[in-house]
Structure to design on (280 residues):
């Protein structure tokens, strides 16, 4: 899925995929992206986050893997080109639009959404290998997205998954939520965008990655430093604790496998457990 941000340097950036991925390219080269994604142009350049679709779930989901093994898997990830047939996204379905969609990684079923249940406010305590991050769900602004995140977290979907992409130039995002750890995975369903009117992405924003309009799945990203993005990625939570954890991960850098400042984070970050705590 995609996330697009203008880079700090004047050199053109392009990239892609479905929930988040970036690649640097010169203007006269092919646009590259992960398995799914759209390219959102900015005046000077663009950076896109997305799924890669270059590895199977079985490589990483059978049992917890060591950081060294995971790094080796990421080093083997190829550089797929943009798939033109996936850039337009999907039309908005009625309501939240929860619809079965491939891939079916750790499939937990479809969320049984009701407005009353979705309105219940909560915070989520994300216990990672690097420390604890606490987020407050924007249940009033993004009820479908926060309900989906809660649905997956309560069923252990994110447990033992790791954040597979970090960007430290132009855009400042840590991408997580893929059970395959490659950027290609998803929960077996998609749903509609929301909360996009006037959306901005300051530090502490938690937002969905996507493969075009209305293609949200399980992948999401933390913004660890103020970032400029087109309002195309549903903001659904705010970090209220643990920004130092995100900044520590970012400070360690990445392996730049997709271009300078864009790759697998050097500081291995996996979710040990995500606890949903209702506040009302």
């Amino acid at each position: 899925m995609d996330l697009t941000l203008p880079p700090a340097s004047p050199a053109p950036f392009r990239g892609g995929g479905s929930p988040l991925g970036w690649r640097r390219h010169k203007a006269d080269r092919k646009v590259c992206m992960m398995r799914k994604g759209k390219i959102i142009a900015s005046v000077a350049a663009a950076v896109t986050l997305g799924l890669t679709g270059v590895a199977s779930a079985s490589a990483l989901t059978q049992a917890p893997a060591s950081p060294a093994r995971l790094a080796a898997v990421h080093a083997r990830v190829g550089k797929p080109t943009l798939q033109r047939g996936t850039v337009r996204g999907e039309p908005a379905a009625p309501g939240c639009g929860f619809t079965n969609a491939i891939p079916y990684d750790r499939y937990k079923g479809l969320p049984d959404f009701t407005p009353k249940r979705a309105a219940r406010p909560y915070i989520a305590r994300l216990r990672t290998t690097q420390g604890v991050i606490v987020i407050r769900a924007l249940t009033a602004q993004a009820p479908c997205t926060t309900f989906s995140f809660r649905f997956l977290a309560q069923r252990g979907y994110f447990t033992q998954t790791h954040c597979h992409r970090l960007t430290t130039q132009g855009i400042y995002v840590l991408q997580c939520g893929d059970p395959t750890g490659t950027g290609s995975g998803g929960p077996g369903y998609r749903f509609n965008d929301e909360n996009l009117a006037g959306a901005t992405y300051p530090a502490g924003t938690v937002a969905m990655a996507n493969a075009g309009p209305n293609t949200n799945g399980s992948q999401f990203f933390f913004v660890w430093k103020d970032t400029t993005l087109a309002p195309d990625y549903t903001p659904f939570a705010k970090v209220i604790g643990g920004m130092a954890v995100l900044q520590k991960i970012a400070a360690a850098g990445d392996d730049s496998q997709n271009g300078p400042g864009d790759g697998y984070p050097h500081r291995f970050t996996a979710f040990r457990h995500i606890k949903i705590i209702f506040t009302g």
Remarks:
- Residues 143-154 form the longest helix (12 residues).
- The CA atoms of residues 189 and 268 lie 27 Å apart.
- The radius of gyration is 17 Å.
- The first strand starts at residue 13 and ends at 14.
